């Protein structure tokens, strides 16, 4: 093999992984942009929810339902979240920093490792409930 041919082959092996990473990354970017364009954080197919929404159900019922009631329906302690779900930015801020409304206070969860990393998952679950796309109770999960 000539020196020139060897350099071309080596260049191909150096460039090819970058092309693959860019192509795969671009595909994921398009999907994320499409989700953002619709404003939906959840996906439901045949009555089954995606992993994010299912995880949101689990996290919600592990930390939030004590005050906001099962399935986001509210309680005597805190308002229903499915009746008036705020936009994602307000929701993130409220969950991270907490909320004070008259004598009612919700602590912030910014330091809670069971909540803070999963705020968008919880939002996906509550958004599906608020939109009427998901009923009460434990949802079935889509297969990967």
From TrEMBL:
Q: Which GO terms describe its molecular function?
A: electron transfer activity; heme binding
Question: Is Membrane one of the keywords UniProt gives this record?
Answer: yes
Q: Which domain of life is it from?
A: Bacteria
The UniProt keywords, alphabetically, are:
Membrane, Transmembrane, Transmembrane helix
Q: Which InterPro entries match?
A: Cyt_c-like_dom_sf (IPR036909)
Bilayer-spanning residue ranges:
12-30
Do the record's keywords include rRNA-binding? Answer: no
> Cross-referenced Gene3D superfamilies, in alphabetical order?
Cytochrome c-like domain
Give the protein's recorded name: Cytochrome c-553I
For this protein's source organism, the top of the classification is: Bacteria, Pseudomonadati, Pseudomonadota, Alphaproteobacteria, Hyphomicrobiales
